[in-house]
Design a protein that fits this description.
This protein has helices at residues 15-29, 34-54, 65-77, 89-108, 133-142, 146-158, 162-166, 198-211, 239-252, 261-274, 279-286, 292-297, 303-317, and strands spanning 173-176, 179-185, 191-195. By secondary structure, the protein is mainly α. Strands 1-2-3 form a three-stranded antiparallel sheet. Helix 2 packs across helix 4, helix 5 runs antiparallel to helix 6 (146-158) and helix 5 packs across helix 9 (239-252). The longest helix has 21 residues, at 34-54. It is elongated, with a radius of gyration of 25 Å.
Length: 318
């Protein structure tokens, strides 16, 4: 007797699932960075889509204002970290901004009603800690290797991100007349020129030419001190290694609070604004897409900072 044939059951994707698949394909087709793609997949496909299924939402036209509001409340009240803690408010804001990009694309495609809008929770105001210029100088002084001194000084005097520091190559040192720059590749693979003081530029060029291991094949400026056991070559310094250098320097310098590489970026922006730098110029130096981060993150500047900036402008006009 012949055994009955097994019938394969095909699971047809729901209209909402198909729309999300089309959106992610659109994002990949734009050539976005792997990090941006991963963020979109994590939020839209792995979080919002399963939640929608549980809520009985399977079609784009079901994405009403009430549904979106319930998802925002779900992130704030129900979602937790692996350690069991509620999601940080800034994390929820990031998730909803990412979902908002999908929503605007779907509205452009006429798949979702134009009137619905994601509501993001208010930003949690915190006092932003920064490093003083004296503390930064002390940190540079207590480390002995020129590589480590340069990493600290570049983070402090340019405001570049840690990943941008680690990606620097000898060919990224740029001169335009008397002006000195480093070319960095920021988020979204966007390149920009960041101004550097001439003395620091000379130190960096000297190190790139004569300070790195002579046998190194990598073009990266900041390399390990020993060859890799796997490749037999000098590898690019890791983010963890920079964190260790910064942590050690802060401890020896007697700084009694947590110091990490990104703190230098906040410190640079605060210092630049207090010195009267135009926020639009600062936005371009830092590589922000707009002024949102400048106006939101650096609200810790006091009224006296604004007064001092105004007096400097008045004196310059006399």
């Amino acid at each position: 007797m012949a055994s009955p044939k097994l019938k394969l059951v095909e699971h047809k994707p729901t209209p909402l699932q198909s729309l999300i698949g089309d959106y992610l394909a659109h994002q990949r087709g734009r050539g976005l960075s792997p990090r941006s793609i991963k963020q979109a997949v994590d939020v839209v496909e792995r979080q919002f889509l399963p939640w929608s299924v549980k809520e009985g939402v399977t079609a784009p036209d079901q994405l009403s204002q009430r549904v979106l509001d319930r998802f925002g409340a779900h992130l704030l009240e129900d979602r937790t970290t692996p350690s069991g803690k509620p999601l940080a408010r800034e994390t929820v804001r990031t998730y909803l901004r990412t979902l908002g990009q999908f929503l605007r694309w779907a509205q452009f495609e006429d798949a979702v009603a134009a009137k619905v809008k994601l509501q993001t929770p208010a930003r949690q105001r915190r006092l932003l800690e920064t490093l003083s210029r004296e503390e930064i100088q002390h940190m540079e002084d207590v480390v002995s290797a020129e590589r480590d001194k340069l990493m600290i000084r570049l983070l402090a005097d340019t405001g570049i991100r840690l990943g941008e520091l680690l990606g620097l190559r000898s060919t990224d040192l740029a001169e335009q007349g008397r002006e000195r720059y480093i070319k960095v590749k920021g988020k979204g693979s966007r390149e920009r020129l960041v101004p550097v003081a001439p003395a620091l530029f000379l130190r960096l060029r000297r190190y790139a030419q004569r300070g790195r291991p002579a046998q190194a094949r990598s073009e990266r400026i900041f390399l390990t001190n020993r060859r890799s056991a796997k490749t037999g070559d000098y590898e690019a310094v890791s983010a963890r290694a920079v964190q260790d250098v910064v942590g050690y320097a802060a401890q020896v310098a007697g700084i009694q609070r947590s110091v990490h590489p990104h703190l230098f970026r906040h410190s640079y922006a605060t210092w630049a604004l207090r010195k009267g730098m135009n926020p639009l110029q600062l936005q371009r130096i830092l590589g922000h897409a707009d002024l949102t981060m400048i106006s939101g993150v650096y609200s810790h500047l006091t009224p006296s900072d604004s007064y001092t900036a105004l007096m400097d402008l008045l004196r310059a006009d006399d």
